[in-house]
Amino acid sequence: MPYVYNWQIGREMSYPHEESHPRWQFAFVFNPNRCIGCQTCTMACKSTWTFSKGQELMWWNNVESKPYGGYPQHWDGKLLHMLEEVNPGRQVWDAREKDRETMPYGTFDGMTIFEAAERRPGPDGHQGALGYLPNDDEWRSPNIHEDIGAGSHFSKEGQYGGSVQLPEHKVWFFHLARICNHCTYPGCLGSCPRNAIYKRQEDGVVLTDQSRCRGYRKCVEGCPYKKAMYRPTTRTSEKCIACFPRLEGKDKEISPTGAPAETRCMSACVGKIRLQSLVERDEKGGWANDPTNPIYYLVRERQVALPLYPQFGTEPNGFYIPPRWVPRDYLMQMFGPGVDSAIEQYSCPDRELLAVLQLFRANQQIIFRYEIEQGEKVAECEVTMPSGETRTQEIFNDTVIGYNKFDEEVARVTIEEPTFERPAEAHVNSI
Asked: Which residues have CB under 8 Å from 351's CB, separation 6+?
């Protein structure tokens, strides 16, 4: 197989197709620290795209409660186990040497799903990506084990005795919102024998050509996140399309000037856990240096948002700010070795990071650039860090301004939430 460079694992890896990259890449950051598991995003997607016959079990967006929840059930645990069987004891990271541009998290010395597939040949040779087909029971519920915690036995000593203090809780769970990651090296694309799956050059969105698909379900098997799904009524596979008509600015209600707009799941988010953008690619296929793009700032500049299971090798373009209260070993398995640094920064954000965090769900149009107008100091508080040390956080009432693709201002948010007093002569229930 050809070799491609994967910056998330810090090395070259084998992949079924030659290196090729779009000009812009759809990318997003989710913040599980804010997610309340309300499933508003799930239903926004469902009511827009997957309400028809044959799509009953299709949940392109889902929110699962970790560690026990998953859709399909056990999707990540099963694949991690398969990789460990192929490469026992060597699925490890080497984080001793790092480079901000080419290997920000160090190097993953284990096998990706594409490399492991070469070790498991079948009757027709090895598959494009190591994977499996979930059975019907595993697809039965998009939010199974919702709000179920992990930890010691539920007793006064076990559940409540010292279990609610950061940096980690003894009894814990968190909500993991998921959509298709529109990976740089998609497992679905690498597995399809019909070449029916492709990445759009204008935005990197991964789509399925329904006229070429024959329903072999190799994409379902090869996607490590199980976001390619089979539709029995049409005998083809379908997946999240990143609401690409909105990316193209086709919704004139939201984008009167034709600027790209957020996906339905993003714009419906109640907890404001989602931030979406398009990041520009450079000539080598990496991310072009653009620290005023909020996604670039959070992912590449500050590394506070981390990829989901980067060791799978797909270079996902979905990133997460790790939840602070979850045991670190679990988070490092899920997000890689950058967890400690990410949580430390998020626990006590500096002035610029705190301002950028206000842009989550600030407008339905996609924010391509931000700038900050500095304000006066409004607060000072003591913060206990994950290490146990105490820091003093100074909070300034800065204003962060977001601009769309055409450099039009679409968001203006202050750190301190403004208070509005309604005039008594106009409103009966005024203060």
From this structure: 394, 396, 398
At which residue do the structure tokens 């203006």 appear? 412
pTM of structure: 0.94
Q: Does residue 335 lie within any of the structural domains?
A: yes
CB atoms within 10 A of CB 340: 15
> Would 393 be classed as within a structural domain?
no
**CB of 109 closer than 8 Å to CB of 94:** yes
Pair 70, 134: CB distance under 8 Å = no
Q: Residue 70 domain-assigned?
A: yes
**pLDDT tens by residue, the chain, 431 residues:** 899 999 999 999 999 999 999 999 999 999 999 999 999 999 999 999 999 999 999 999 999 999 999 999 999 999 999 999 999 999 999 999 999 999 999 999 999 999 999 988 766 667 899 999 999 999 999 989 999 888 755 444 444 344 445 677 888 999 999 999 999 999 999 999 999 999 999 999 999 999 999 999 999 999 999 999 999 999 999 999 999 999 999 999 999 999 999 999 999 999 999 999 999 999 888 999 999 999 999 999 999 999 999 999 999 999 999 999 999 999 999 999 999 999 999 999 999 999 999 999 999 999 999 999 999 999 999 999 988 899 999 999 999 999 999 999 999 999 998 888 878 777 777 65
> What DSSP state is assigned to residue 341?
H
Number of domains in the chain: 1
Q: What CATH number is attached to the domain comprising 292? A: 3.30.70.20
Look up residue 247 and give its two tokens: 């990316």
Mapped onto helix, strand or coil, the DSSP state of residue 49 is helix
Q: Which domain holds residue 251?
A: 3-347
- In one letter, which amino acid is 415? I
- Our CA dihedral for 44, 207, 217, 127, rounded to 10 degrees, sits at -130
What is the rounded distance in angstroms from the CA atom of residue 374 to the CA atom of residue 384? 26
Task: With respect to residue 364, please indicate whether it lies within any of the assigned structural domains.
Answer: no
Rg of the chain in Å (alpha carbons): 22
